[in-house]
Amino acid sequence: MSSSHSVPTNKSRTIFGTPKLPAKYATVVMPFFLSILMSCIVSGISTFNGVGASAQFVELWLSAWFISWVVAFPTLLMVLPLVRKLTAAFVQLP
User: Where is the chain membrane-spanning (predicted)?
Assistant: First the structure.
């Protein structure tokens, strides 16, 4: 017997096997990942510049990273529309 429900294909799943979110969530998911990566890199460089390769580096970096991310994510959500407009003013978009 066949079911009326369609089974999602592998293409509609993430690398973790969970179903992908609908496209409308891209406006939140992209800034989410961007804020994680950028705050990680910037806080890591800043922490290393401040304390060097000390024994406390990882602990200080993770603390700085979390605080940076808490600021970076909502900031990205607020400024991304402006950044898109500025980009459109300088780049010929398809």
Answer: 21-48, 60-83
